[in-house]
Amino acid sequence: MAVRDGAINDIPASAAPHACSLNQLRSAARWTARCFHAGPQHLNMPLHPRMTLNNWVQGRFGRADDLTSEELLTGPRHAATWVVIVYFRSIEYGRGTSTKKNAAKDQAAERALAALQERFDQEQQ
Predict the structure, then answer these.
(1) CA 12 distance to own-chain centroid
(2) Structure pTM?
(3) Domain DRBM, which positions (predicted)?
(4) Are the C-beta atoms of 64 and 55 separated by less than 8 Å?
C-alpha cells in the first residue's frame, strides 16, 4: 500500500488488519509520510553533533551516564555569550562558545567527540 499526498484518507477499510482499527492505520500512514517524506536519501544526512557524541559514547562504553555538560551565560544581557563545557568522567573534553545556546552546545559536542576519539583510539592501539 503506497501513501500519496492526499491519499491517506483513501485507505479502504478492507486494508486494515484485524488487530488495528482503520483510524490507527491512517495515523500510522500519516506518521510514515511525515517521517520519511524525503525518501531514502534521508539516511545520508549527517547526525546532529550532540546525538553523534552520545551515540559514540554509548557504543564505546555501553552507556552515556559519565557524559555531562555545563552551560554558562556570560557578558551583558544585550550581548550575552553562551559557554558550554562537555565533561566525560569529570574531565573536560570540549568547550563551545557562541551567542546562541544550541550553537555552543553543538560546538562543544563536536570538540568533545574529536578529543574522546583521539584519546581512546590511541589507547586501543
Answers:
(1) 36
(2) 0.63
(3) 48-118
(4) no
Domains of the chain plus CATH, in order, are: 8-44 (no CATH), 49-124 (3.30.160.20)
Each residue of 61-75: pLDDT tens digit? 999 999 999 999 999
DSSP 3-state assignment of 17? coil
* Cell, residue 73: 551565560
* Confidence category of residue 38, pLDDT binned at 50, 70, 90: very low
Q: How many CB atoms lie within 10 A of CB 53?
A: 28
Q: How far is CA 91 from CA 46, 87, 95, in A?
A: 27, 5, 12
User: What residues contact 94, with CB distance under 8 A and at least 6 apart?
Assistant: 85, 86, 107, 108, 109, 110, 111, 112, 113, 114, 115
pLDDT in tens, 91-125: 999 999 999 999 999 999 999 999 999 999 877 66
CA distance 91 to 76: 29
